[in-house]
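Q: Could you fold this chain for me?
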Amino acid sequence: MIEIRKIWHYLTRYVDSFLLVGILILMSIGLIVLYSATGGNVTRVSNQAVNILVALVIMWLVANIPLQQILRLAFPMYMLGLILLIGVALFGEINNGARRWLNIGVTRIQPSELMKIAIPLMMAWYFDKYEIALRLRDYFGATILLLLPVLLILRQPDLGTALLIAASGFYVLFLAGLSWRIIVGLVTAAAASLPILWSVMHDYQRQRIMTLFDPTQDPLGAGYHTIQSSIAIGSGGVVGKGWQNGTQTQLDFLPEQSTDFIFAVFSEEFGLIGNTVLLLLYLLVIGRCIAITANASTQFTRLISGSITLTFCTYIFVNIGMVSGILPIVGVPLPLISYGGTSMVTMLLGFGILMSIQTHPKLIKT
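A: Sure. Below is the predicted structure, expressed as structure tokens.
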């Protein structure tokens, strides 16, 4: 009995129990919804269970890494991500007109997922290095670090992921104390450049934005996803149709129902009450992440934990927004719920960093 306690203590000493429980509940819900979304496909659910186990192991390993080591990993991880993105540009596989995946022999990877963590980590390391006397040129240098991978991702093309990764980097700039005057200036410049951005967009990207305002203009094409997901969410009503009883899902009207549009599946089957419970679970996880950020003791830990937390919130908001028809469709998975190995690993890698910040002693600079 004593040996079991010792083993349990060893396994959980650097794991934040509250955060872990919230994550496990959300991933369990994801498996339940995935079973219904795939029509009872046990193989696909089993694959996702393996993805979850791998992600949990990675989270545990990262949670056990001292903060000094995480700090040292920032630059190598960023450079690895850049090299992989260049590899995608040169040798990546083309699917549906986009070059986003890289075959490394044993499996395919999407390097842009790695950059969701690598960019905030690198920028937090950069600001921590110049913490004593931050100047405007330091913010400019951090912006260059952000723009290099974002431009490579835009080239794939993957506008949605590029914008979300840019947001994760912007959160670091904001938390590092970027002046409000500069932020307002950047927003103004971005608004002024919209006509230029519109002109360089691909046709399908412009169509997605136009469809946001009137999906019925192309009900069997660009507007199909929005229309079907809206029908699924609305037909769920207050209590939902019940697990595996969603007509939009079971009759295959709903596209991408195991990945980007899994929230529509959940809404149809569990209704408003289920959505409320799901959002409360997300809020509990977010609240714990905010508490970890508030208690962070150094510039580096505050910046990286704050960026991870805000990025997690952004992905939830964007996915639910696009499925509900209030945002353009950009192909963003619902965190911890949607099917996918790379996104699951990336998300739990971020939570592992948060756990390391919470459970390890204060960061000692070397």
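A (continued): The chain has 15 helices and three strands.
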